[in-house]
Amino acid sequence: MRSCGFIGRIVPGRRYPKNTDSRSLSVVKGKVLVIEDEPSIRESVGYALRTEGIDSVSVSTVGEARRAMSDTQVSLVVLDVGLPDGNGFDFCRELRTHFAGPVLFLTARSSEVDRVVGLEIGGGDYVTKPFSPRELTARIRNLLRMAGAREEEASASVEFVGLRVDRERACVFLNGEPVTVSASEFRLLATMESRPGRVYSRDLLLEAAWEDPGASLDRTIDSHVKNLRAKFRQIAPETEVIRTHRGLGYSLNPNLTEVGA
């Protein structure tokens, strides 16, 4: 029988003391995405977050989560493991190819093995059911605070201006600003960034950055480059990050790149 529920409850109308320490939280933009198929738990988590002034959006399946990640600016993910259309561990691995924010597992799976797996694949915290909504929101605030502190540090840094591809966290920065990229766009940039200035043919990029290059066309690369340029222009309109070499392919501007961790 599936264990669901929480310890205690948030009572509508009752006044609770709020955590007024907003340092670093103001830097983190976006909503908390709650992926949980039990309606009562979704409602409890959503209400608990609202009482703390934290915006959230809730979904019940992996498919809905993918759409939400595409349509919404997300700062943190609360993720159940047992979902109707997929496994939360697998979805976390997928997220880590393009999402650098914190992931908090909220699940009935309480074994040591499950906890270790959740943390090793990129989870920032692991909470088991039944749970306390107030403790959960405190853990979420802590993760957001740490993420905000990292963004503040990146914003304050003047050591590097240009493109940075962080392989460890699977994220991209331009002039210190985070750039939201798809998994394919990240692999494309990571390939070119390994040797800035080198001209990569479309065939080479397909082979290096796509799991099944034979199923893609040359124009697939052109489309992804166009999308990346549009994203870069929003941050640095006058900066040429990706150069076109007619009849040959593409390269990264070697004056703008730094090898990421």
Automatic annotation (TrEMBL):
The Response regulatory domain, residue ranges: 31-144
Annotated source species: Puniceicoccus vermicola
Keyword Phosphoprotein belongs to the record: yes
Entry GO CC: cytosol; protein-DNA complex
UniProt lineage: Bacteria, Pseudomonadati, Verrucomicrobiota, Opitutia, Puniceicoccales
Cross-referenced Pfam families: Response_reg, Trans_reg_C
Source domain of life: Bacteria
4-aspartylphosphate found at: 80
CDD domains reported in the protein's UniProt record: trans_reg_C
GO molecular function ontology, one term from the record: transcription cis-regulatory region binding
Start and end residues of each OmpR/PhoB-type domain: 155-254
Alphabetical keyword list: DNA-binding, Phosphoprotein
PANTHER family in UniProt: REGULATOR OF RPOS, TRANSCRIPTIONAL REGULATORY PROTEIN CREB
Protein name: Response regulator
GO BP of this protein: regulation of DNA-templated transcription
InterPro entries attached to this UniProt entry: CheY-like_superfamily, OmpR/PhoB-type_DNA-bd, Sig_transdc_resp-reg_C-effctor, Sig_transdc_resp-reg_receiver, WalR-like, WH-like_DNA-bd_sf
Residues annotated to bind DNA: 155-254
